[in-house]
Amino acid sequence: MTDNFANKKEASAALKYWKTQLGLRDWFIKLRFTEGAFGDNKNNTGFCDFDFSNKSALITIANLNEYERGNLVIKQPQEQVLIHELLHCLYPIKYKNEEINSEIVSELQHQVLEQIAKTLFAEKYKLNINWFNNK
Ligand SMILES: [Zn+2]
Question: What is the Å distance from ligand 1's center to 115 Cα?
Fold first, then answer.
């Protein structure tokens, strides 16, 4: 288990494993990778563009280089990012930027999903939750 998937085959195997574990086997899910973090502030490491009614999703995961990984406060292995993004398919709340209640719901949602993703990842690899502290 490393921070980045070794190759596409490893990423596909992880996707299959977590789709099964999370009860998402009948979803159509595609993975794609970007070089480096993305988004407006270039600090996104994952994104899930889901369509709940069609049970489909396009998940984007950042390929961080060693320098970018070193700057993270909390480790973000790609498999854990994948779990977080898959959890969005189970909890399909969309929100609007710049609308205060929406922003609050979004913050709460991401924090809860992130904690569950970390816990599931830590359980699979028998890691203490403190492992995520990027010393
Ligand atoms: Zn999220």
Answer: 11
